């Protein structure tokens, strides 16, 4: 018997935590379900301590994960068992993080744990959806193709992240330069211009008055604004600490004009990719839906998917269930309907993944374009006010001196 810690939702929606003894995770989940609890997270009691000690030695995050799966894929594709592949990496890897990771995983496998369970000890390196894919690959003895899918997923996400970061550099520079110019004018040039105008009897022009107002707002209103942001942040975190609050805030986030669509596309890409891969690996529908549910980030989508999963397990068609609970749009439902009729959902969900991947890239590109345009307009407006204020002040002083 082993000890497990768990987080689960009761029938009234409250979150319960505790520990229990069971032979393995599946038995622990069954025990909790018999008590009327819906499991949110369950871990072997030794995993938290293992993750804590391991994270102190192994760094690198996603980069290490990508390198790890590339090496493991090469060895396993050549016919090397996973255990032997990890043993080889633990002896020959030149990267110290890879070396430490391989040693820890080989040790874990030697103790009888599965690869998926071993990866759970490194949450900073391997995210949940990747672990679920590995779990499915182990259950179907199809790890090589699963490794290929994980590598593609990590590489695509890495490319997308680089595009976003590079695109954000330009608006960030614009905001920084504009902000620096305004600060220079407000705290260095403006006081001098204001004193000169007063000494010479000149009147402050409108651009200078606007900049003085902005300066006062930044000086006196800035701390209040920051305090409100901090209070709001902790308030939202407090709300999100409860299951109903988490669902409500995630549902609200999905309704936001730009970021909501990005979050929706991101989760649909993740779940459709996982469903396609699991079906391709020979995993049955019940297990596929169970593993996919764990990978969904947004709590509102995850709740609706859970209801959809129950309907599918009760015999409802996949397309009908997804449409009923609003998980996919009409175009996606049409694709799934064809897969339902032909019995080939693999290609259907792969197509949905590609469609939403393209949509996600376009939405991020549009969001960055709007942000860049806003930054450019803000920078131009601020610099224009500064230049206009200085020129107007100089012209006003010249007129006063002439008089």
Architecture overview:
Helix content is 77%, strand content 6%. The chain is built from 16 helices and 3 strands. It has a 3-stranded antiparallel beta sheet with strand order 2-1-3. Helix 13 packs antiparallel against helix 14. The chain is elongated and about 95 Å long.
Give a short overview:
Helix 9 crosses helix 10 and helix 11 packs antiparallel against helix 12. Helix content is 77%, strand content 6%.
Topology:
Elements: E1 2-9, E2 15-22, H1 25-34, E3 38-44, H2 45-55, H3 62-77, H4 82-92, H5 96-110, H6 115-119, H7 128-140, H8 143-199, H9 206-240, H10 243-254, H11 259-280, H12 285-295, H13 299-313, H14 318-324, H15 330-342, H16 345-402
Antiparallel strand pairs: 1-2, 1-3
| N-to-C CA distance | 98 Å
Order of helices and strands: EEHEHHHHHHHHHHHHHHH
Give me the side-by-side strand order of the main sheet.
Answer: 2-1-3
Task: Note the beta-strand portion.
Answer: 5-15%
Relative helix content:
over 70%
What's the story with the biggest beta sheet? 3 strands, antiparallel
Rg from Cα: 28 Å
- Number of beta-strand segments: 3
Low-confidence stretches: 48-56
Principal-axis shape equals elongated
Mean pLDDT across all residues, rounded?
79
What structural class do you assign from the helix and strand content? mainly alpha
Enumerate how many helices there are, as a single number. Answer: 16
């Amino acid at each position: 018997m082993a000890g497990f810690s768990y987080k689960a939702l009761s029938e009234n929606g409250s979150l319960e935590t505790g520990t229990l003894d069971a032979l393995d995770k599946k038995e622990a989940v069954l025990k909790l379900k018999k008590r009327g609890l819906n499991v949110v997270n369950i871990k072997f009691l030794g995993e938290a301590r293992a993750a804590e000690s391991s994270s102190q030695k192994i760094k690198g995050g996603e980069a290490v994960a990508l390198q790890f799966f590339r090496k493991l894929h090469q060895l396993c594709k050549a016919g090397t068992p996973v255990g032997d592949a990890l043993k080889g990496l633990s002896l020959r890897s030149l990267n110290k993080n890879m070396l430490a990771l391989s040693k820890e995983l080989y040790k874990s496998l030697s103790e009888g744990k599965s690869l998926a369970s071993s990866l759970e000890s490194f949450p900073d390196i391997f995210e949940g959806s990747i672990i679920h894919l590995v779990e499915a690959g182990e259950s179907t003895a199809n790890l090589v193709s699963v490794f290929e899918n994980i590598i593609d997923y990590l590489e695509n996400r890495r490319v997308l992240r680089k595009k976003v970061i590079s695109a954000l550099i330009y608006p960030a520079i614009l905001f920084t330069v504009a902000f620096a110019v305004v600060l220079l004018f407000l705290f260095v040039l403006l006081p001098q211009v204001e004193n000169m105008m007063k000494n010479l009897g000149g009147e402050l022009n409108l651009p200078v008055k606007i900049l003085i107002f902005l300066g006062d707002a930044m000086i006196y209103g800035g701390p209040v604004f920051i305090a409100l942001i901090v209070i709001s942040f902790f308030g939202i975190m407090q709300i999100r600490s409860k299951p109903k609050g988490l669902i409500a805030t995630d549902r609200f986030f999905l309704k936001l004009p730009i970021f909501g669509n990005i979050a929706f596309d991101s989760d649909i890409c993740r779940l459709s990719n996982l469903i396609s891969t699991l079906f391709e690996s020979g995993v049955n529908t019940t297990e596929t839906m169970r593993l996919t549910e764990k990978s969904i980030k947004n709590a509102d989508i995850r709740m609706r998917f859970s209801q959809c999963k129950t309907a599918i397990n009760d015999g409802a068609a996949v397309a009908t269930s997804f449409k009923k609970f609003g998980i996919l749009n009409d175009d996606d439902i049409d694709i799934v309907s064809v897969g339902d009729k032909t019995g080939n959902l693999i290609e259907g969900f792969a197509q949905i993944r590609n469609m939403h991947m393209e949509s996600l890239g376009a939405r991020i590109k549009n969001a960055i374009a709007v942000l860049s345009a806003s930054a450019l307009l803000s920078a131009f407006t601020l610099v224009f006010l500064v230049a206009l204020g200085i020129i107007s002040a100089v012209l006003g002083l010249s007129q006063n001196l002439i008089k």
